[in-house]
Request: fold
Amino acid sequence: MGKRILRGSFVALITPFKEDGSPDIEGFGRLIDFQAAHGTSALLIMGSTGEVSLLSREERHLIIAQTVKFKRSGLPLFYGCTANNTRETIAMVQYAARAGADGAVVTVPSYVYAPVDAALQYFLEVADASPIPIGIYNNPIRVGTDLPSEAILRLADHPNVVIDKEAMARPGQIAQILAAGKELSLMCCDSPNLGLVPAVMSLGGHGTANMTGNIAPAEMAIISKPWSTIEDAVNFREAYLRLLPLIHFTYSKVNPVPVKSLARVLGLPAGRLRKPYLNLTGSALRAGVDVVRRLGLSERYGYRIREDLIGKDAPAEAASAPDAQSAGGGTAACFITEGR
Reply:
């Protein structure tokens, strides 16, 4: 039996927290229902958009065990399962499988800077041990390992590897992977700084693995629809250019600071970011609110803007911190590690 190829908008979900800072399981349910109602094809829970690096192992287990109960027909739930070594990553993948997850997304563990041969072996060992489909995430800016097309194509031959999410700045690699015709869903992060979305979709990619869909899921579903007609291409262009101001906002600081700060103000289950992250405030946050209003998203999704949560501008010293575009040596980083 062939692989199940994921197509469309694969949204990396925020993790909602309660006032006491604990995971808001009921909030997860509301977010999953919201995505299901607006055309999202699959969800990634506990990627970097979900602050996974700031969750304990016990919290990760709790979130997996409880959120699988919110499964909706036609909306597979994948979980970020990367840990700090191969054995622990396998253990997290196997826990997710036992709990009923539809799949797992993994990247190379942070701070290891694994050479390509070691990273390839890591992904193959995880895939060998996994009872569920695996998505791999090539995010060299964050993890220090850049998988070339040859490595991706080697991984694509594994029966458990079903998704390749790319977050590097080489459209040529996208073409090489697609030209090989492997049984693999090729997606990319929606960072406008990397600019991969037009390349992936125009070359025949399968969609986007995005986080702007937390705010505009129906628009990201249009942008992420694989092209089969000229109408698909025209709809993509119109939706992408229209939504670009929001996409630029969601990548204006390190993920998930802008998107989760905005979600909270719009009345979605979100809560505060877990420290050391700090919520956007003042004019930095109002810029996102203004974009939402201009695009008519408040009316479309019934958002009720909480002006009382916008607050004042951050202190000058905090505001001067590098943003997502300047961090990483000026390489226009995607700054998301969805499997981490």
Notes: Confidence is low (pLDDT under 50) at residues 317-322, 324-333, 335-340. The first strand starts at residue 8 and ends at 12.
